[in-house]
Automatic annotation (TrEMBL), chain A:
Gene Ontology CC entries for this record: membrane
Gene3D superfamilies in alphabetical order: Fumarate reductase/succinate dehydrogenase, transmembrane subunit
Main location: membrane
Lineage: Bacteria, Bacillati, Bacillota, Bacilli, Bacillales
Superkingdom, natural source: Bacteria
Keywords from the UniProt entry: Heme, Iron, Membrane, Metal-binding, Transmembrane, Transmembrane helix
Cell compartment(s), UniProt: Membrane
Organism name: Cytobacillus firmus DS1
Signal peptide: none
UniProt-recorded name of the protein: Succinate dehydrogenase, cytochrome b558 subunit
Single GO term (MF): metal ion binding
Annotated heme binding sites: H28, H70, H113, H155
Automatic annotation (TrEMBL), chain B:
Cofactor(s) in the UniProt record: [2Fe-2S] cluster; [4Fe-4S] cluster; [3Fe-4S] cluster
Iron-sulfur is among the record's keywords: yes
Native source organism of the sequence: Cytobacillus firmus
Lineage: Bacteria, Bacillati, Bacillota, Bacilli, Bacillales
EC number: 1.3.5.1
Family: Belongs to the succinate dehydrogenase/fumarate reductase iron-sulfur protein family.
Signal peptide start-end: none
GO molecular function, one term: electron transfer activity
GO-annotated biological processes: respiratory electron transport chain; tricarboxylic acid cycle
Highest taxon, organism lineage: Bacteria
Enzyme class, UniProt record, top EC level: oxidoreductase
Protein name: succinate dehydrogenase
Amino acid sequence: MAGNREFFNRRLHSLLGVIPVGLFLVQHLVVNHFATGGEESFNNAAHFMESLPFRIFLETFVIYLPLLFHAIYGLYIAFTAKNNTSRYGYFRNWMFMLQRVSGVITLVFVAWHVWETRVQAAFGAEVNFQMMENILSNPFMFWFYIIGVISAIFHFANGLWSFLVSWGLTVSPRSQVISTYVTIGIFIALSIVGVRALTAFI
Amino acid sequence: MQETKTKTVRFVISRQDTPDSAPYQEEFEIDYRPNMNVISALMEIRRNPVNVKGENTTPIAWDMNCLEEVCGACSMIINGKPRQSCTALVDQLEQPIRLEPMRTFPVVRDLQVDRSRMFDSLKKVKAWIPIDGTYDLGPGPRMPERKRQWAYELSKCMTCGVCLEACPNVNSKSDFIGPAPLSQVRLFNAHPTGEMNKAERLEQIMGDGGLANCGNSQNCVQSCPKGIPLTTSIAALNRDTTFQSFKNFFGSDQI
């Protein structure tokens, strides 16, 4: 792979964004949605996830390592672009810019979110409904979470669109237009799931 | 119409004396003539290089050649959009007409840029069909007429640089080759004889600064003056390089 490291890295970056990081995002949002069923229902679901066997390995290989690579290489990609939406205000160019902006917002959000929940859990705190209720009772944190969750979902949905292009699955303009509609649908559906879960804590 | 009322055309031109000096703006006002294009206006200014303040100045430097939008030499930024100045008709432009060089490329002087990197890229991707042998290789395979018509659209590329100028990923921080040479890979890989070097071209664009740097902003296809389906070419090459990389890693055949 020495000759085409950049090609390999870019493709790996695109793949990891969907599998496993994107899939993990969907799973996480779905599990959070248990919160709409009340405190007990959320705590049961969270407890089930916590008590999965080989948890540390699952976390490391499904979340930490892929996410770290995606985040660090993504930052490099974001900062090598020279955005020009003021001169070229086309839809896809806006998506290109928003993909980079939402990526950076998501990274800040995820870093804070991991610190506040998973790292605190490692220090002995218990991650449950109560914890999230406490965090989200602060209006600033509530909006921080809303923005973070929506930008993560946008980044995933739009990233799925460019994943399909980057791997050569959607080649024709028509297939790219249809996959735009599909990914907009995914964005809206997951946003409803994510926001419903957040509002369930307050 | 505004032109008939004032009978002049106003230009705001970005100028630069040497490749390294700072750019500055200079305004010009010239008499209106029917059917003027940006080039005929620039020629008019060259005939009498006096700016709007009445000062004598140097004539403006720009590139031009064919004057019918097939050579790509006269590309510049006209009212914010990169395009050919030969087909930029004064009657269709909002005034003052603002001219700038395409700064994605090194500026030589005023509106003149050095597009060498594009021609170097064409060499890199072997944008030609090798037909020379030490003996007569005979006639090559024939190309179906429908395919020839399709390929003709890709062959309209005039290396003008507009797509590189529009691309957010072609800039001084990245060494992205840009859309135009990538589409040429698709063109020459589609040719029955050119196809014999398909893997070589794909390997080249799988290298650093190659195809994978595309961020799908799709500005190129919106900006191309020849309407070349650049993003379709890029997506098609994404597919070809996916197969090529699998072949390289898992397969045993060399091409």
